[in-house]
Amino acid sequence: MQPGYRHWPQPRRFACAMNGFGVERERWHEHEEFRRRVLAEFTKIPEYLKQDFLREVDLDGV
Fold first, then answer.
1. pTM above 0.70?
2. Ramachandran region of residue 4, left (φ > 0), alpha (ψ -120 to 50) or beta?
3. Domain for residue 50, yes or no?
4. How high is the pLDDT of residue 1?
5. Which domain of life, per UniProt (predicted)?
6. Count of domains observed in the chain
């Protein structure tokens, strides 16, 4: 058992997107600041994958 997980032996991590722009999620590209932030995060993905901060998810295994 890993330290810190005594009461939660098999933690799972989930992500939930936050939309505080008052624009429907499907129309993110039409809002200037929303589009800027999405694209800024998108450019970080390759480095996060390389550093193992993110991993691809095998949806068949979920």
1. no
2. left
3. yes
4. 46
5. Bacteria
6. 1
